[in-house]
Amino acid sequence: MSVTGIPVRAPSLPKTKRQPRYLLERERVLGPLMLLPAIIYIVVLVGVPLALALAYSVSDVTVADQSIDWVGLDNFRAVVKNSTFQKALANTFLFTIASQVIVLVLANILALVLSTDFHGKRLIRFLVLLPWTTPIALGVIGWLWLLDSVYSPIDWTLRQIGLLGPDTLFGPASNIYWLAKPDLARLSVLLIHVWRTLPLATVILLAGLTAIPQDVKDAANVDGAGFWRQLWFIRLPLLLPIMAVAVLYGMIFTFTDMTVVYILTRGGPIDNTQVLASWAFFKGVDGGDLAQGAAVALFLFPVMAGMAVLMLRLARRTETS
Amino acid sequence: MAAPTAFGEPRFDPRFKRVGTRGVLYSVATFFALFAALPFAWMLITVFKANTDLYKRVNNPFLYNDPPTLDNIRLLINDTQYPTFILNTFIVAFLVVIITLIAVVPAAYSLTRLAGRWGESLGIGIFLVYLVPPTLLFIPLTWVVAQFNLKNSIWSMVVVYPTFTIPFCTWLLMGFFKSIPWDIEEQAMIDGYTRLGAIWRTILPISIPGLLTVVVFSVALTMHEFVYALAFVTSSSQKTISVGVTTELIRGDVFFWQALMAGAAIVAIPIALLYNYFLDRFIAGFTLGAVKG
Question: What is the DSSP letter of B225?
């Protein structure tokens, strides 16, 4: 948001303008008034629910008994003791951190490729963006079928090239059972998070690459810096802030997501892929325990707030540089 | 200098050619394209498969071993509530767009023109509301929705979805308004229009591309949403596509795979095209303007 982009009000404008006749003509009245609908909407439907979530988490409210009675930190205590909570917490962090590390590496490669010019680039770009532009619930359905326990085409391919089946590397079973084994199920969820957030990170990095001033590149070329030197000493350092932005978004979307787990595994097998968000849903909506569901969801909040603050600082830094 | 777009002028670096040959370039690009598009390719193949073909484990899953058929699409349209889901989605999207526009146009104008130096910070603050995840709010919002007597109706989504479209689109539209010179409405006001009149006659007509972007992203975000819809609505006549397809077409262990794939693909592809077209705006907003140049 370069300041130069904002046209400053012309100082030469004659000050002879008459005092506005109507109240609506005064900027101090009109400004807040125009902002009001948006603010009211956000306060009533985001602010109030957030406060309500806090109230729920320290009460004994359920679907059956809607009265909010104070129980202190009982819900948090009960939740933390639950073994599923520990699994969900570990998984949430595992999926978030591991997926974004992978995404960071892959997105840099992909952005570099897409920043060059080649035939069919538009098609490649469209395809690469599909996981992000499609509603996530529908994308995961495709994966659900790809990872099917019997008809998975991945398994079929592995069988054809002799890696799956009796007396083979992944045998002796003739199917992998991706979603039935805890480790493989976690791997599948992780893979889908990579699949889904890679496009966003890539286009953000690509935008950053395009914004590197041409004269910097020209100067490097004149000085005889090779491809790798340019990559290491010019592109990557210049891209660092924008990379951080990309990773932060990826983290926020992965950390708070429940759709992938809900559709792919329902948290199974035996809660082994459960994450905080999905567990909150199963507890609060399917289980009807609003108080504990709210308590679980609130564990997302501190991390979320931290990421938002980081985002703000980054925005400020890129703004001044 | 024209603002570089995310995919603007191709910057061809001659050194890249020398080190990474065309071959490497194409194979890497193809690998990523395959990885990204695999589930969708698989969806499209499956849609036209006959049951006898699909449910035979030895069959090559990527080919039609039996002749392709349209039966699955017929099943989807005639024997499921898919048409209802589509209609519901359109109604919700339409109303969400209206509410969003009503709130966002004055808010973005106020923040860029009337709020002075606080405008930008306040704008970023509002944008951050977009990042508050549905998974944090769906439990209390279920109660709020019940208080309005909207539970289990498409109206619950109409009311709640603007909570994320308004923050996102306010920020988006601020970017547009900022690029319009002040002189234009000043001139209109000197000519005797009130400020609101000036906005109506000068700013809005110029901002049509911006308003269009707001419409597109309100629709796209509405179609993407899953968690609220899942929490608020249980009767199938009120469901939208994301939730309808994933809950009504998957019943326990019975999967109507081909119909399911058709249901997903029919919406996925058009939204992807729409999104793709407006992507640069999206990225400029998402990076908080850091790469606008």
Answer: -
Which parts of chain B have pLDDT scores under 70?
A: 1-20, 251-255, 288-293
Check A7 against B33: CB less than 8 A apart: no
CB contact under 8 A, A34 and B114: yes
Neighbours of B57 (CB within 10 A): 13
CA atoms within 13 A on the CB side of B189: 18
Q: A70: which DSSP letter?
A: B
Task: Give B-chain residues touching A121 at CB under 8 angstroms.
Answer: 10, 29
Cα A272 to Cα A181, A184, A275, distances in angstroms: 9, 10, 9
Q: Which residues of A touch B264 (CB under 8 A)?
A: 138-139, 141-142
Enumerate the β-bridge partners of residue B251: B254
A115 touches chain B (CB under 8 A): yes
Say how far apart CA B184 and CA A24 lie, in whole Å: 19
- The proportion of chain A whose per-residue pLDDT surpasses 90, expressed as a percent, equals 19
Contact A142 B40 (CB under 8 A): yes
Contact state of B107 with A138 under an 8 Å Cβ cutoff: no
Q: Give the angle subtended at the CA of B58 by the CAs of B52 and B64, to the nearest 5°.
A: 50
Q: Which helix (H) or strand (E) holds B136?
A: helix B134-147
B110, A138: Cβ pair inside 8 Å? no
Residue of B nearest to A117 (CA): B10
Give the residue from A201, A122, A200, A208 showing the smallest Cα distance to B273.
Answer: A122
Contact B135 A277 (CB under 8 A): yes
DSSP states along A24-66: GG-HHHHHHHHHHHHHHHHIIIIIHHHHHHHHHHTB---SS--
Whether the Cβ atoms of residue A280 and residue B135 lie closer than 8 Å to each other = yes
Give the integer Cα–Cα distance in Å for A140 and B246: 10
For A118-169, the pLDDT digits (tens) are 888 888 888 998 898 888 888 898 898 888 888 888 888 888 887 777 777 7
Of A25, A242, A298, Cβ closest to residue B195: A25
> What six digits make up the tokens of B115?
């709020």
Cα–Cα distances in angstroms (integers) from residue B135 to residues A64, A137, A253, A262, A285, in the given order: 22, 15, 11, 12, 11
Write down all domains in chain A, each with its CATH number in brackets. Answer: 20-47+87-320 (1.10.3720.10)
Domain coordinates in residue numbering, chain B: 14-69, 76-286
Bond from prior residue into A153 cis (ω within 30 degrees of 0)? no
Q: Does domain B76-286 have CATH number 1.10.3720.10?
A: yes
